[in-house]
Amino acid sequence: MADVPFAESLCHRCAAPPKYVRTARSTFLRCPLLPEKYPRQPVLQCTLFRPAVLTTERLVLRELTPADEPFVASMTDSVADAADWMRRSFERYARDGFSLWLAIDRQSGEPVGQIGLLAQTVEGVVEPEVAYHLHARARRRGYAREGAAAVRDWAFARGYDHVIALVREDNVASQAVARSLGMAPGDPATHHGVEHVVWRVDRR
Description:
Blueprint: E1 19-22, E2 27-30, H1 42-45, E3 52-55, E4 59-62, H2 69-74, H3 82-96, E5 100-105, E6 111-122, E7 125-134, H4 143-157, E8 162-167, H5 172-180, E9 184-191, E10 194-202
Antiparallel strand pairs: 1-2, 3-4, 4-5, 5-6, 6-7, 8-10, 9-10
């Protein structure tokens, strides 16, 4: 992409990889999410664009847009009602300034899941929870660990003195992610009618 004028375009942070259209006189960015054939200034005109909240070695984390609902709906082992999931995410963005963000593979531009911070009520106390839901096809690649570590650091940089993770006792993979974040298991807690263990790490 070094030979095109958009090599550093913020549109590379979008879930849909940009396509470049060459004409006799110029090169245009063709965004597959936009109805316009040749949007001249896609970053300024694209209503779907969301800037990255966090960037790691392999991932970009950004807020959801309505166009992400089909992907969210495909995460069937995490999401029962995609429309309700999206609605609650947008409400959290507006209320808390954060929620689960869309996790995108930087190389392919494809979404791999959702990772973010939730203001979670646990036993009557609002706690900052690092949460991660990976699509089945994107698991066992270290995405959850990489993204969750970035979210932990993002929370600490914004003044939180600790973060937690709610993990079921039978979820060995999530326990390993929590442990990699420096968390230790603590008290049990019932969340949405399901027993979890509250894992926690304090800011040093």
